[in-house]
Hints:
By secondary structure, the chain is of the alpha/beta class. Helix content is 40%, strand content 23%. The strands form two sheets. It has a nine-stranded mixed β-sheet, sandwiched between helices. It starts with 9 loop residues before the first strand and ends in a 5-residue tail after the last helix.
Amino acid sequence: MTSAWDHPTYDVVGIGNALVDVLTHESEDFIDRHGLVKGSMTLVDTERAEELYAAMGAGIEMSGGSAANTISGIASFGGRAAYIGRVHDDQLGAVFAHDLRATGVDFRAKPATEGPPTGRCLIVVTPDAQRTMNTYLGSSEYFGPEHVDADLIADAQVTFLEGYLFDRPEAKEAYWKASRVAHEAGRRVALTLSDTFCVERHRGEWRELVREQVDILFANEHEALSLYEVDTFEEALAAARDDVEIAIITRGPAGSVVARGDEVAAIDAHPVEVVDTTGAGDLYAAGFLYGFTQGRSMAECGQLGSIAASAVLGHTGARPGVSLGQLVRPMGY
């Protein structure tokens, strides 16, 4: 360990699927006609991705991926952020890198020159503001331990891991490696479970990683119930508190609960007219982690998360249309 690590350059470094988001508004009938599982994230192959893309109406295309959304949100607050992910040396890969760097995020990864193209996430938003995601992982799927930037992780207060990347054995190895590097440097590891289907696919492995390596756990209520195989919110919160230093469980319009040791804070949802739920959990994590790395109380971290989530709930897309730093400054943050 070097002395520089005692004063990290970055607040948070994120690791996740580097994807380009393609987002469109469609009817409930579109969901039924294409056999989609509403409100879920489904992995698709190249053929299915092309089929759905051709069927989707005009929409928005932007750099994305869950952890990238969180990391760009931290930069929007004014935090020092970096990202680790895998893209291909193609047009979408270049778009992803340029867009992310334009938000103020340090993205150093060299694009792959072999293998599948840059991944993309096809997001269908229905009139009730629910988002249904069909993800072609492409190049990002082949993220492994060799892509973990140990120096970057050791130079960040928190390493943030997204659940969506956890499907392949190589990615699981990468998460264990990144977590060990972070802890050896005296840093913390945060994890978002991302999706109930992710939890169901890997419950046992998630439980082990959470118990042994995770300091800060983000989950919505459904994900937490599934992870711990319990029936009530109270049971899930208690189980999470036994496993991690800080447990955050979001509950949609009912707000969120943040627990650290004996401290439990109930956070109200920030008022907003919901247009699109895409990215709400990602931006909640951004607000919380920004507050945490700035030394804020658990309640303040939760409030920052709620404010950041509302900034994306009120419009289409997974990223806020305003500077989060400017948004919260009048509120005393």
